[in-house]
Amino acid sequence: MARSLIRQCAEWFRGLLRLFYPPACVVCDTPLVRGECFICTHCLSEFPYAEGAFSVELENNSAECYVLFHYNKQSRYRKLVYAVKYHSGKELGYYLGGLLGKRLKRVEEIDAVVPVPLHPRKKRKRGYNQSRQIAAGVAEALGKPLWDDVAVKIRHTPSQTGKNATDRRKNVENVFHLCAPERIRGCRLLVVDDVITTGATLSSFLHTLSEAGDVYLTVACLGRTEL
Ligand SMILES: [Zn+2]
Asked: Of 16, 55, 91, 209, which is most buried with the most CB atoms under 10 A?
Protein backbone atom coordinates (compact mmCIF):
# COMPACT_ATOMS: atom_id res chain seq x y z
CA MET A 1 0.00 0.00 0.00
CA ALA A 2 2.73 2.44 1.11
CA ARG A 3 4.88 1.33 -1.78
CA SER A 4 2.20 2.05 -4.38
CA LEU A 5 1.65 5.47 -2.80
CA ILE A 6 5.38 6.21 -3.09
CA ARG A 7 5.30 5.06 -6.71
CA GLN A 8 2.32 7.30 -7.43
CA CYS A 9 4.07 10.26 -5.82
CA ALA A 10 7.25 9.58 -7.81
CA GLU A 11 5.20 9.43 -11.04
CA TRP A 12 3.44 12.66 -10.18
CA PHE A 13 6.76 14.32 -9.39
CA ARG A 14 8.27 13.12 -12.67
CA GLY A 15 5.26 14.52 -14.53
CA LEU A 16 5.71 17.86 -12.78
CA LEU A 17 9.41 17.89 -13.67
CA ARG A 18 8.61 17.18 -17.32
CA LEU A 19 6.17 20.11 -17.31
CA PHE A 20 8.83 22.58 -16.19
CA TYR A 21 11.89 20.89 -17.66
CA PRO A 22 10.69 18.92 -20.70
CA PRO A 23 13.36 16.54 -22.04
CA ALA A 24 15.21 18.11 -24.96
CA CYS A 25 16.60 16.66 -28.17
CA VAL A 26 20.23 15.62 -27.48
CA VAL A 27 21.27 16.95 -30.90
CA CYS A 28 19.49 20.31 -31.25
CA ASP A 29 18.18 21.02 -27.73
CA THR A 30 14.55 21.54 -28.89
CA PRO A 31 12.02 20.27 -26.31
CA LEU A 32 10.78 16.82 -27.29
CA VAL A 33 7.11 16.20 -27.95
CA ARG A 34 5.10 13.10 -27.11
CA GLY A 35 6.35 10.04 -28.96
CA GLU A 36 9.88 11.41 -29.45
CA CYS A 37 12.75 9.81 -27.58
CA PHE A 38 16.20 11.43 -27.11
CA ILE A 39 16.31 12.74 -30.72
CA CYS A 40 13.59 14.94 -32.30
CA THR A 41 11.85 13.90 -35.52
CA HIS A 42 13.70 16.57 -37.52
CA CYS A 43 17.19 15.49 -36.34
CA LEU A 44 16.24 11.84 -36.84
CA SER A 45 15.15 12.58 -40.43
CA GLU A 46 18.57 14.13 -41.15
CA PHE A 47 20.51 11.49 -39.23
CA PRO A 48 23.91 11.03 -40.97
CA TYR A 49 23.72 7.22 -41.19
CA ALA A 50 26.92 5.59 -42.44
CA GLU A 51 26.75 3.04 -45.22
CA GLY A 52 28.90 -0.06 -45.62
CA ALA A 53 31.79 -1.22 -43.48
CA PHE A 54 35.50 -0.58 -43.13
CA SER A 55 38.31 -2.83 -42.01
CA VAL A 56 39.98 -2.86 -38.60
CA GLU A 57 43.51 -4.17 -38.92
CA LEU A 58 44.54 -6.94 -36.54
CA GLU A 59 47.93 -8.53 -36.06
CA ASN A 60 47.36 -11.38 -38.50
CA ASN A 61 44.14 -10.45 -40.24
CA SER A 62 41.37 -7.83 -40.21
CA ALA A 63 37.76 -7.52 -39.07
CA GLU A 64 34.83 -5.79 -40.75
CA CYS A 65 33.52 -2.83 -38.81
CA TYR A 66 30.05 -1.27 -39.14
CA VAL A 67 29.47 2.32 -38.03
CA LEU A 68 26.11 3.91 -37.17
CA PHE A 69 26.85 7.45 -38.26
CA HIS A 70 29.41 9.86 -39.67
CA TYR A 71 30.46 12.87 -37.69
CA ASN A 72 33.28 15.36 -37.52
CA LYS A 73 34.25 18.20 -35.19
CA GLN A 74 31.64 20.54 -36.71
CA SER A 75 28.77 18.04 -36.74
CA ARG A 76 25.94 18.70 -34.28
CA TYR A 77 25.50 14.90 -34.04
CA ARG A 78 28.86 14.76 -32.28
CA LYS A 79 26.98 15.60 -29.07
CA LEU A 80 25.46 12.12 -29.08
CA VAL A 81 28.86 10.49 -28.68
CA TYR A 82 29.71 12.73 -25.75
CA ALA A 83 26.28 12.32 -24.13
CA VAL A 84 26.57 8.52 -24.19
CA LYS A 85 29.73 8.72 -22.08
CA TYR A 86 28.72 11.53 -19.79
CA HIS A 87 25.48 13.26 -18.72
CA SER A 88 24.19 9.88 -17.48
CA GLY A 89 23.70 8.62 -21.01
CA LYS A 90 22.91 5.08 -19.90
CA GLU A 91 19.50 4.90 -21.60
CA LEU A 92 20.71 6.93 -24.59
CA GLY A 93 23.41 4.29 -25.23
CA TYR A 94 20.76 1.57 -25.23
CA TYR A 95 18.58 3.61 -27.60
CA LEU A 96 21.45 4.28 -30.06
CA GLY A 97 22.41 0.59 -29.83
CA GLY A 98 18.87 -0.19 -30.99
CA LEU A 99 19.29 2.10 -34.03
CA LEU A 100 22.62 0.44 -34.79
CA GLY A 101 21.20 -3.08 -34.41
CA LYS A 102 18.33 -2.36 -36.81
CA ARG A 103 20.84 -1.38 -39.51
CA LEU A 104 22.96 -4.51 -39.07
CA LYS A 105 20.95 -6.76 -41.32
CA ARG A 106 24.09 -8.34 -42.73
CA VAL A 107 25.33 -9.69 -39.42
CA GLU A 108 22.27 -11.74 -38.44
CA GLU A 109 24.41 -14.86 -38.52
CA ILE A 110 26.24 -14.01 -35.29
CA ASP A 111 25.99 -16.11 -32.11
CA ALA A 112 26.32 -13.31 -29.53
CA VAL A 113 27.04 -9.62 -28.95
CA VAL A 114 30.14 -8.79 -26.88
CA PRO A 115 30.85 -5.27 -25.54
CA VAL A 116 34.40 -3.95 -25.14
CA PRO A 117 34.96 -4.12 -21.34
CA LEU A 118 35.64 -1.00 -19.31
CA HIS A 119 38.21 -1.00 -16.50
CA PRO A 120 36.37 -1.57 -13.16
CA ARG A 121 37.74 1.69 -11.76
CA LYS A 122 36.40 3.69 -14.68
CA LYS A 123 33.09 1.84 -14.52
CA ARG A 124 32.73 2.71 -10.85
CA LYS A 125 33.40 6.36 -11.64
CA ARG A 126 30.95 6.54 -14.55
CA GLY A 127 28.42 4.12 -13.05
CA TYR A 128 28.12 2.06 -16.23
CA ASN A 129 30.02 0.82 -19.28
CA GLN A 130 28.71 2.79 -22.27
CA SER A 131 29.78 0.06 -24.71
CA ARG A 132 27.75 -2.48 -22.75
CA GLN A 133 24.68 -0.21 -22.93
CA ILE A 134 25.06 0.12 -26.71
CA ALA A 135 25.70 -3.63 -27.01
CA ALA A 136 22.52 -4.37 -25.01
CA GLY A 137 20.49 -2.26 -27.48
CA VAL A 138 22.14 -4.01 -30.43
CA ALA A 139 21.50 -7.47 -28.92
CA GLU A 140 17.84 -6.62 -28.30
CA ALA A 141 17.34 -5.33 -31.88
CA LEU A 142 19.00 -8.43 -33.37
CA GLY A 143 17.34 -10.85 -30.95
CA LYS A 144 20.75 -12.26 -29.98
CA PRO A 145 22.28 -12.94 -26.54
CA LEU A 146 24.53 -10.39 -24.85
CA TRP A 147 27.75 -11.87 -23.50
CA ASP A 148 29.31 -9.24 -21.28
CA ASP A 149 31.41 -11.53 -19.11
CA VAL A 150 33.72 -13.28 -21.56
CA ALA A 151 36.60 -10.87 -20.87
CA VAL A 152 37.66 -8.17 -18.41
CA LYS A 153 39.87 -5.14 -18.68
CA ILE A 154 42.73 -5.67 -16.26
CA ARG A 155 44.86 -2.64 -16.97
CA HIS A 156 43.82 0.98 -17.13
CA THR A 157 45.06 2.60 -20.35
CA PRO A 158 46.15 6.23 -20.37
CA SER A 159 44.89 8.38 -23.23
CA GLN A 160 46.16 7.39 -26.68
CA THR A 161 46.05 10.93 -28.00
CA GLY A 162 49.40 12.26 -29.15
CA LYS A 163 51.07 8.83 -29.16
CA ASN A 164 52.59 7.34 -32.30
CA ALA A 165 51.47 3.95 -33.66
CA THR A 166 54.20 1.94 -31.89
CA ASP A 167 53.57 3.59 -28.51
CA ARG A 168 49.80 3.12 -28.93
CA ARG A 169 50.30 -0.61 -29.53
CA LYS A 170 52.60 -0.92 -26.50
CA ASN A 171 50.12 1.03 -24.41
CA VAL A 172 47.36 -1.54 -24.99
CA GLU A 173 49.38 -4.76 -24.70
CA ASN A 174 47.96 -7.25 -22.18
CA VAL A 175 45.11 -4.94 -21.29
CA PHE A 176 42.35 -7.57 -21.45
CA HIS A 177 41.97 -10.98 -19.87
CA LEU A 178 39.87 -13.68 -21.51
CA CYS A 179 37.71 -15.33 -18.81
CA ALA A 180 35.94 -17.98 -20.84
CA PRO A 181 37.94 -19.03 -23.94
CA GLU A 182 36.09 -22.36 -24.25
CA ARG A 183 32.73 -20.56 -24.36
CA ILE A 184 33.57 -18.42 -27.37
CA ARG A 185 35.67 -20.97 -29.29
CA GLY A 186 34.04 -21.62 -32.66
CA CYS A 187 31.63 -18.67 -32.26
CA ARG A 188 30.76 -15.74 -34.48
CA LEU A 189 30.82 -12.66 -32.28
CA LEU A 190 29.73 -9.10 -32.87
CA VAL A 191 32.01 -6.85 -30.81
CA VAL A 192 30.49 -3.49 -29.84
CA ASP A 193 32.45 -0.34 -28.99
CA ASP A 194 31.20 3.22 -28.49
CA VAL A 195 33.53 5.22 -30.73
CA ILE A 196 36.67 4.23 -32.54
CA THR A 197 39.44 6.80 -32.24
CA THR A 198 42.83 5.23 -32.87
CA GLY A 199 41.47 1.68 -32.90
CA ALA A 200 44.39 0.48 -30.74
CA THR A 201 42.26 -0.58 -27.73
CA LEU A 202 39.68 -2.24 -29.94
CA SER A 203 42.37 -4.06 -31.88
CA SER A 204 43.90 -5.29 -28.62
CA PHE A 205 40.49 -6.59 -27.45
CA LEU A 206 39.88 -8.39 -30.77
CA HIS A 207 43.32 -9.95 -30.45
CA THR A 208 42.48 -11.21 -26.92
CA LEU A 209 39.19 -12.73 -28.15
CA SER A 210 40.89 -14.39 -31.12
CA GLU A 211 43.27 -16.16 -28.74
CA ALA A 212 40.36 -18.48 -27.87
CA GLY A 213 40.83 -19.97 -31.33
CA ASP A 214 38.42 -20.37 -34.25
CA VAL A 215 36.56 -17.15 -33.43
CA TYR A 216 34.97 -15.10 -36.19
CA LEU A 217 34.76 -11.41 -35.29
CA THR A 218 32.76 -8.49 -36.67
CA VAL A 219 32.67 -5.02 -35.09
CA ALA A 220 29.92 -2.41 -34.71
CA CYS A 221 30.22 1.03 -33.14
CA LEU A 222 28.44 4.38 -33.06
CA GLY A 223 31.05 6.39 -34.88
CA ARG A 224 34.62 6.82 -35.89
CA THR A 225 36.49 10.00 -35.10
CA GLU A 226 38.42 11.77 -37.77
CA LEU A 227 41.93 12.16 -36.37
ZN1 LIG B 1 16.72 17.73 -32.67
From this structure: 209
Cα 59 to ligand 1 centre (Å): 41
CA of 26 to the centre of ligand 1 (A): 7
CATH fold label, 48-224: Rossmann fold (3.40.50)
- CA pair distance 132, 96, nearest whole angstrom: 12
The Å distance, Cα 197 to ligand 1 centre, comes to: 25
Distance 112 CA to ligand 1 centre (A): 33
Phi-psi region of 38 (alpha: psi -120 to 50; beta: other; left: phi over 0): left
CA of 131 to the centre of ligand 1 (A): 23
Give the domain ranges of the chain: 1-46, 48-224
CA distance 194 to 92: 12
Cα distance between residue 121 and residue 190, in whole Å = 25
Distance from first CA to last CA of the chain, Å, rounded?
57
Show Cβ contacts of residue 217 under 8 Å, excluding neighbours closer than 6 positions. 63, 188, 189, 191, 206, 209, 210
CA of 36 to the centre of ligand 1 (A): 10
Averaged pLDDT of the chain: 86
Q: Give tens-digit pLDDT for 2-20.
A: 667 777 777 676 666 656 6
